[in-house]
Amino acid sequence: MKSLQISSNIHDYQVLFSENLNFLNSLMANPHCVFVIDRKVYDLFPDTFKKIHHDDLMLFSALESIKTMESVFSIYRFLARRESKKNIHLVSIGGGILQDISGYAASTLYRGIHWTFIPTTLLAQADSCVGSKTSLNFEEYKNIIGSFYPPHQVLICSQFLNSLSEDEINSGIGEIIKFMLLDDRNEVSISNIGEVIYEANSSGDFSKAIYTSLGVKQHYIKQDEFDRGKRNLFNYGHCFGHALEYSSEYRIPHGIAVIYGMILANFVALERGYISSEFNELLFEKLFRKFLSVSLRTSDLDDHTIISALKKDKKRTGKDLTLILPSSNNIEAIKVSDLKEDEVKTVLNHCKRYLGIK
């Protein structure tokens, strides 16, 4: 079984890759295991989970609206009534939303319990399963509550991906593209990235793309596990992306919003003279265009709404706005904290014209 060993100042952990779900048998046979599962996943694989006793099972409908402390409290109630306490083994099965609420619960209940995460979306398999972050929303503020607490083990199975929609696949591809563009171990090649992505998308085998994506993330984490410096660069596409999720009322899936966010960040870089129009066009045509399966509406690019969301970004450090953008045609992402509101308005109008949004 292919694996990655992730080092962490909290606790080291393994990412294991499997082609089938047989590994679940040993977890379901463990009397200390308690399962929190995305309801949609549970319904798609009823025979797989039938051995789980109903007292050991909690289901969630994984919507952005449940990423709150109330959902965490419900997990506390579910776990606290059990006779076993510190030896509880929480097993989360689902995507990033479920990972956030169950991971935060695992990190804080009894000051930390044993936790296994089984990601079921491409987005979670290629990104959030590694990195230790848990994030919750508070009122209109996105991801401002959280902790660093990695799973003790991550189990990735390609079988889950067979049930995903085109939008869900494209959402995962958006994050994979971002990670491969930010790879600081090798010279970034747009054509090589395109080859890996298009081959995975046409064959349905994302194992190489996932492994590559997590390898990039692993390398950054070694340098900056707690997001105080270089790891901030992973927010390329996220500043505008989170704003677009908010403005669209989460109609746009996260990873597709990140693609649009990278497009907008690139327009800022183009306006500032950091990248050439030829390079900007190359990125759009070779990497971004094909995976924009959810279209933007004029209302999604409302400058007042977008700027208001950018002002709530937790990465902001001053009176101006924060953004990650490429500093050259070699990508070389940088964090800027001097983005002006007028720049945002200019770029949003540019995007409308470029994408033909009326």
What is the rounded distance between the termini?
50 Å
| CATH top level class name of the largest domain | Mainly Alpha
Total number of helical segments? 14
**Main sheet properties:** 7 strands, mixed
Shape: globular
Q: What fraction of the residues are assigned to beta strands by DSSP?
A: 15-25%
> What would CATH call the homologous superfamily of the largest domain?
Dehydroquinate synthase-like - alpha domain
What does this structure look like?
This protein has 14 helices and 11 strands. The protein has 358 residues and is α/β, with parallel strands linked by helices. The protein has 2 domains: 3-163, Rossmann fold (3-Layer(aba) Sandwich); 166-355, Up-down Bundle (Dehydroquinate synthase-like, alpha domain). Helix 7 (166-181) packs across helix 11 (254-271).
What's the topology here?
Elements lengths: L2 E4 L6 E6 L5 H5 L4 E6 H6 L1 H4 L7 E4 L8 H12 L8 E6 L1 H13 L5 E6 L2 H7 L4 E6 L2 E8 L4 E5 L8 H16 L8 H14 L3 H17 L14 H10 L6 H18 L5 H12 L14 H9 L9 E8 L2 E9 L1 H15 L3
Parallel strand pairs: 2-9, 3-4, 3-5, 5-6, 6-9
Antiparallel strand pairs: 1-2, 7-8, 10-11
Keywords for this entry:
single chain; 358 residues; alpha/beta; Rossmann fold; Dehydroquinate synthase-like, alpha domain; 2 domains; two-stranded antiparallel sheet; 14 helices; globular
Explain briefly what this protein structure is.
The chain is α/β, with parallel strands linked by helices and 358 residues long. It has helices at residues 24-28, 39-44, 46-49, 69-80, 96-108, 122-128, 166-181, 190-203, 207-223, 238-247, 254-271, 277-288, 303-311, 341-355, and strands at residues 3-6, 13-18, 33-38, 57-60, 89-94, 114-119, 133-138, 141-148, 153-157, 321-328, 331-339.
